[in-house]
Amino acid sequence: MGDLSLRRRRVLSLKGREVFEVKLGDDFLMSSLFSEGEIALARLGLAGLDAAELDVVVGGLGLGYTASAALDHPGVRSVLVIEALAEVIRWHQKGLVPLGAKLAADARCRLVNGDFFALALSDGQGFDHDEPGRRFHAILLDVDHSPRNLLHARHGVFYEPAGLRSLARYLHPGGVFALWSDDPPDEDFLRALAAVFSTSRAHVVKFHNPLLNRDAANTVYVART
């Protein structure tokens, strides 16, 4: 998909603030300057789940903000992170990114090198190789830029009703699928969610962009079986 790079730099215009960035080719995948949307993905996705011991899948590790926020939720028992790029997992295990030590040290968190989309669309295997067909209370996804702006064309089938139905098999009744997007709410994707899930909603998450000194926004979709 392109050359993967992790870089650390200091932004002089922000009083020398240290920033970590992940790029894939020319695409920015993640910056520690903008973590509000990734944190909101976990908080909005887990809000309202009343199980005492929640099992969560996170699709896409990045700099670890979604996984970390999920672990901070008081009801979470386990977090299974599926990351397609083994190098990203190694960055965390070696402590090269700010949240790496936290995730590596938490016994509830398991980092797995795998293709989230292939596992979601698998015929009965699901996300946990140790327990085929295992169901979860929440599945939180942050890989593509949006349901239409994909890192790879093969991901496209996942965002259609058939792909979402395959994913829903691995959720407990009342479970939640939540998705981060860098684009505004997409009506076509909301219709696809409505065709599969009992409820679905797009949340606009606003935050300040310190580089441009203006507000920015992400979208978090939350759908429930």
Describe this structure in words.
The chain is an alpha/beta fold and 225 residues long. The protein has a single domain (35-224), classed as 3-Layer(aba) Sandwich (Rossmann fold), CATH 3.40.50. The chain is 24% helix and 35% strand. The protein is built from 7 helices and 10 strands. It has helices at residues 36-46, 65-72, 86-93, 100-105, 116-120, 161-168, 187-194; strands at residues 4-11, 17-24, 27-31, 54-59, 76-83, 109-113, 136-141, 171-181, 199-209, 214-224. The strands form 2 sheets. A 7-stranded mixed beta sheet has the order 6-5-4-7-8-10-9. Strands 1-2-3 form a 3-stranded antiparallel beta sheet, with no helix packed on it. It is globular. The mean pLDDT is 95.
CATH superfamily: Vaccinia Virus protein VP39
Secondary-structure element sequence? EEEHEHEHHEHEHEHEE
Query: Which sequence of strands runs across the widest sheet?
Result: 6-5-4-7-8-10-9
Structural class: alpha/beta
Indicate the radius of gyration in whole angstroms: 17 Å
Query: Unreliable runs, pLDDT <50, ≥5 residues?
Result: none
How many discrete domains?
1
Query: Beta-strand percentage?
Result: 35-45%
Q: Would you tell me which CATH topology applies?
A: Rossmann fold
CATH architecture: 3-Layer(aba) Sandwich
Shape: globular
